[in-house]
Amino acid sequence: MADPGPPQPHEPTVALPVIGPGPAPTAPRRRFGRTLTARAVLVTCAVALVSVLVTALVAVPLAVRGVERRDQDALAAQARLAADVLRLRPRQRDAAGDRLIRQLRQQKIEVYVVRGGTVDRPGLPRQVVNRISAGREVSGRRLVAGKRTLVEGRPLPGGDGVVLTRAATEGPWRQVLRSLWLPLLAGLAAGVVAGLLLARRLARPIRVAATAAARLRAGDRAVRVPVEPPDEVADLAYALNGLAAALATSEGRQREFLLSVSHELRTPLTAIRGWAEALADGVIGGDETSGTGRTMLAEAEHLDRLVSDLLALARLEAADFPLEPVPVDLTRLAADAARTWSDRCAAVGVPFRAELPDAPVPAYTDPGRIRQVVDGLLENALRVVPPGAPVVLAVRPAGAGPAAGGVVEVRDGGPGFTDDDLAVAFERGALHQRYRGVRKVGSGLGLALAAGLVRRLGGRITAGHAAEGGAAFTVVLPPDPYPTRTST
């Protein structure tokens, strides 16, 4: 009886991991003095207060000197008037003089008349009397009767003269401050208001950015921040908008990658489950058990490789990813790989060619990891090349001297890549997503894993077009940082 083949069970459902923001951290409670608005207001108030104090220190002495100069000028005018009165005829002088003296005394101004070097009443300093008798004017401040006094003296013909004194104004600082406190307080209040407005203007774009960041954390990838001046705020908006776009792109690729991986995992799981149910139901006889076991083993190994690649990719960026770089001869490593892959290629009718130099090609790398990269690239090539198309493994020095490092190249005669494919060749699942159902493709993990391994080893990997008509992958490895010195 013909073998009916394994039954086709329903495909199992593979749950995809949920991509979400996770638990949101609790925002710290705001305290007065720690917010940008409060600090800006405090700083502005401090600047305004310092400005007011500096203004007071400069303006008050000037104002005090202005008050004293005004009093001095007023007394000088009175002294000139008194001198003019004393120059009148005796009858006119006596009447006008008495009236002037009464008026001056009402203004708290004392009048001293000097005749022949003698003052009419005591109290005036002798040097003032002598100066007036000598025909010179007196103007300024003097001590009269032990008090600081404004003095204005004018000489008259014949050694006579008149001296007016007035007590210096008491507390000019208090007078000036009483007149200036309102403008100074208004300036301080204006500084506070300006600081508050400035702080709110500066804090508004930061609050908008914080709100956008919270929405990003909650999973809203469509959020965008308006770009506004000044330049620093615009830079912040550009950064947040770029982050939102990058997160949306990354999560989209991650979802596509997970869908691709779930499909790849589902295929061997479906086969293993189908054969297992066939064995359990007794559909497969004893003569077919060994073949069924080999099929299940092959599918299990395929599943194991997928899981291993996923784990390697997950650990690749970790700091504790195991790497053991040592000096390596790439010629010998490629020769060992060629012996293995020549048989595998011959079994499926694919010509295999190794282009190896006669001399060693030194490099500094992890031989196990580089062999993993080479095997992965050769397996990808063997998967896509048709029978009769070549697969080539080549090794050459990266430069003229041994200190330049080495190059390992895998080329094939398969369908190759377009220029657009080359731009995304090493992104996880990108080529798998493009060519699934079109041609033979792998899980989309191999090239991403190879690129990550080469990068961790300090090298670089590129994809291009091969002379054989297919794809070419070039791995450049660094030289030995500790070359062996030969004695001369």
Class from secondary-structure proportions: alpha+beta
Main sheet: strand order:
2-1-5-4-3
Mean pLDDT reading = 77
Shape: rod-shaped
**In percent, how much strand structure appears in the residues?**
5-15%
Number of H- or I-type helical stretches? 11
What is the topology?
Blueprint: H1 36-86, H2 90-106, E1 109-115, E2 118-119, H3 126-133, E3 138-144, E4 147-155, E5 161-167, H4 172-217, H5 231-281, H6 289-315, E6 326-329, H7 330-347, E7 352-355, E8 362-365, H8 367-384, E9 391-397, E10 406-412, H9 419-423, H10 430-435, H11 446-456, E11 460-465, E12 471-477
Parallel strand pairs: 7-9
Antiparallel strand pairs: 1-2, 1-5, 3-4, 4-5, 6-8, 9-10, 10-12, 11-12
Explain this structure.
The chain is of the alpha+beta class. It has eleven helices and twelve strands. The chain has helices at residues 36-86, 90-106, 126-133, 172-217, 231-281, 289-315, 330-347, 367-384, 419-423, 430-435, 446-456, and strands at residues 109-115, 118-119, 138-144, 147-155, 161-167, 326-329, 352-355, 362-365, 391-397, 406-412, 460-465, 471-477. The strands form three sheets. A five-stranded antiparallel sheet has the order 2-1-5-4-3, with helices on both faces. The chain has a five-stranded mixed sheet with strand order 7-9-10-12-11. The longest helix has 51 residues, at 36-86. The radius of gyration is 50 Å and the shape is rod-shaped. 23% of the residues are buried.
